[in-house]
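1st attempt posting a full record on here, be nice pls
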Amino acid sequence: MINLTRTKKPVKRIRAEGGGSKTTYQPWMADDARDIVGKLGGGNAELALYFGISPKTIDYWLRVYKDFERAVKKGRLEKTLKVSKKLYQLAVGYKCKDTQFFLHQGNIITKEYIKHYPPNFQAANKILTILARETWAENVNVNVNHMGTINYRKIDEIPVEELTQAQRELLFDINMKQLATNQLN
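the predicted structure (as tokens):
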């Protein structure tokens, strides 16, 4: 949950550049905005709530105050990179330390071990859809002149257990070729 408690006291409103309506913007707000967006995952609505202003004012600050705009963009980039890294780890599988607890003769015993999380097909499919859109796109346009019914299923809708060994090997080969092609480009 995002903590939207102000870290600094509200400031006195000052006249905006050009003589428009009053604004509360101060340079320290850029740092807070970066943290709200980058570390807490907030968006413009959360920024407006935090600073006690309207979302339209946030939009205005983003246009007028370049330090504020840079800070918010940097926060968004941090947020995107953090999520991308976790999605990639989920896609390829990862290992991490974990602790197991046992109760033995009334005593709690702990044992640390390395827990392995296998690759996640849905995460891998999502990453490949983004990185190799031309070969992994989810939307496929097909023009067919045919009388009758055509039954089809997306490959990610078919459980792996339903695929034959030959189909699995073919998909693996296709995936490897696509990965090799994308790495060369």
